[in-house]
Amino acid sequence: ASSSEAGATIFSTVTVSDSVGFAVGRSNTFLRSEDRGVSWAPVAACEGCLRIDWRHVHFHGEQTGWCVGSFGHILHTADGGATWTRQTKDLNDNNFVLHGVAAISSTKAIAVGTGNRVFITEDAGSVWLPKSTGFGGMDLRSVFFVSETQGWVVGKSNGGSSLGAVLHTSDGGRSWNRQTYSPAVGMRKVAFSGPLRGIAVGEEGVILHTRNGGQSWRASNPKCTLGTLHDVLIDESSLHVFAVADNGVLCRSEDDVTWAPSKISVQTMYSLSEWGASSSLVGSTDEPCWQYGIIAAGEFGSFLNFRCHPMSPPPPSPPFPPPQPPSPPSP
Length: 331
Hints:
four-stranded antiparallel beta sheet
């Protein structure tokens, strides 16, 4: 892995092509790379936003993207990040943070945050409409959609307890059903590689995996770490999975079930992204390794570019129970 440092803590990264990506973070940090993360340059995406911590950035294709952060701020681009437009004003609520956004199409996106808040736009952000999940007392931390209708949200209780939640929608965010799991700790990030296979990570080292769209979630045991896991990435080419945790721990898995820890930094990493479908099996017959175009980012502007991991192709995973008919939406 190669590394660099740019200053402020990075909370989210996104790659929009094989070479171009963005990184956002604390105190209006907004960076762009055009060389696969080798170097990063500041972007004037939001003038007068110095006190804004950008929490998540996500693109649909190479042109359309949204970025969300503290005080309910939302930025939008329709030209690949060349220009950004502010779509919300400061709500003067110090406790209101938008933690995640899913760019579902060129016109539709869903943002989630503290206070169980969900906002949906279907006109490229001209109007953001508030929606309710039907489950109060939650801080929503991450949202992931595999189509315009099917998606998941994860979060944790905002009442001081460690209880968490995984919510699922099959109608584009208009209604939500709660999916059960154990141990029910607060969750930080969720990712799917299709409508059935998903990974969710959270507090106390909990990693959940599903092969039936979340109708059943299983916790990995033994744990890869006891710390909080902040992001998860499913590598589409090799099917390997990576997750980053407190104190520079990287967890990786070949089957979603067993996880191996590595110490990759002294800083906590908050984000993982991949530079396109760049994985390939390289090396000698005796010592093969998977070469990735993966970048991790986190505290103090730390960036790590992963080049090679000595891992074999993933074996078949054990089957989950067959899918059941979806339950009716909660009232």
